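Entry:
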Amino acid sequence: MRKALVLARRELAGCFFSPMAYVVGALFLLASGLWFFHRIFVPGNEASLRPLFEAMATIMVFAAPLLTMHLLSDEYRSGTIETLMTSPVSDAAVVIGKFLGVMAFYVILLAATGVYLGLMAAYGQPDAGVAAMGYLGMVLLGSTFIAVGLFASALTGHQLVAALVGTAILAITAIMMQLIVTHSGEPWNLVAARLNAMTYFRDFSRGVLDTRGVVFFLSATALFLFFSVKALESRRWR
């Protein structure tokens, strides 16, 4: 775990020197800010961040793959993956370290949106419980989306391909499943609801702590991190 934390610190520092991380972070904050000021922070509206959380969750479908597309694909392209594989660091430590580094950067982005909560508190009375559960849901959702993006990056040496694969997987689990839930009958809508990340996230955005959602996000995160380790291990045999 110590080696994973060293890699996490290196990855986090790399984010602050990466133009793409700044671009993605700026677009994430810009999109969420525009949504907040045009749809939520309006006289007469309810003092609730719930619509903002749901908007940010949708934005993450496209932002997470862009944040993670370089994690392993860039190592493949530059050849530095060979150095990692011959160093006394396990594949699991490499995957976990890179995951934690991007997660730390993502949490910093989320913390920056706390200014919206401050503005609402200054002019209204937002529900603190809803805000807390919403941010917890964003952290859990982000961990799953980042793990998916990391897995996509582990599959190819091309960053653009990794971004497209990650976006496709997230679009299926977050957008297509919602369309099936809305427009299909039983049993397909019930199956889609169980596999739909947004179904579980909406409970958090409403201020509800549902253990099924916690289990879903943690299990999905662990599953895709496991897939990432296996994809990295397969490189040893090529």
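Residues 118 and 193 are 34 Å apart (CA to CA).
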